[in-house]
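Exercise: predict the fold of this chain.
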Amino acid sequence: MTESQRPSGEYPMYPSYGNGDASYPPPPSYPPAPEPAAHRRRARRPVALLAAVAIAAGVVGGGTAAFVQQFTGNDTNSTGGGVVPGTTVSQSSKGTVAGVAAAVSPMIVEINATSTAGESTGSGVVITSDGEIVTNNHVISGASSVKVKLSTGRTYTAKVVGTDADKDLALIKLQGASGLKTATLGDSSAVAVGDQVVAIGSPEGLTGTVTSGIVSALNRDVTVAKENGSGQGRGQGGQSGGEQWPFEFGGRQFNGDTGDSTTTYKAIQTDASLNPGNSGGALINMNGEIIGINSAMYSASSSDGSSSSGAGSVGLGFAIPVNTLKADLATLRSGNGS
């Protein structure tokens, strides 16, 4: 027999595992190496952050929810979430009268015009940060002095930039104003009968009064006087005791005689309560966009010759469509209106 010349300790033999022969031992069953702590923390951090943000979103509403979508790569403004484009109506308040009122009220002003006919009170809408304000022509017609009070209570002197009596529109400019909040002009062609609306103005000098209702009709042929020539301080705000601004519809005259010089326009009809002083204010959709400039109202008590002090809204109000205003802005700014 030939003996192995293998050096001692090389290729050791191990006990048999059942086949009677020596064999190599099975590999030891070591537990897997632990994952580095830093890696584990990195993997969990985004999940934990998103969970925390999601919980916060449930508490504070649309603003935080918008951040969650931004974090995950979704643009909320492109889909109408978070903030309605061009307004400050938050998603959580969108579609509510309170949300629209809070967003738009700072852009609605009270206008006090003084003329030889007396004083009239109306409303206006701020459209530029340096103080351009849209109102009705009949609010400032013939005025020798125009004062404007903001929702903050601050008062400015204003000058008349341009008027368009045919459309019953006027543009005035505050002197020395800057940094004002501005309204968003919507699209009146998209308005439908039954749409919910909000009206904001200064009826009887009550600045920032909010009412709501629906669009009750479209394309009403409303006729109003071009000039404030009655000597009674008209302008839908008879603080001097004058009558309301008269208008004509369907061959009948309301709130007084419209006179010989009149103009007719297609109006949005609303049952949102309008009262003397609302003229020139805003009719607003539920996204916070201006869809009309309030211009006329019917009051049963004033149609029989009684004073405006006894007048009140009966749910028949009319507004100039905002698309008419947008088409007329360049003319108003140039001062070349009718």
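Check your answer against the key: Confidence is low (pLDDT under 50) at residues 49-86, 229-242, 302-310.
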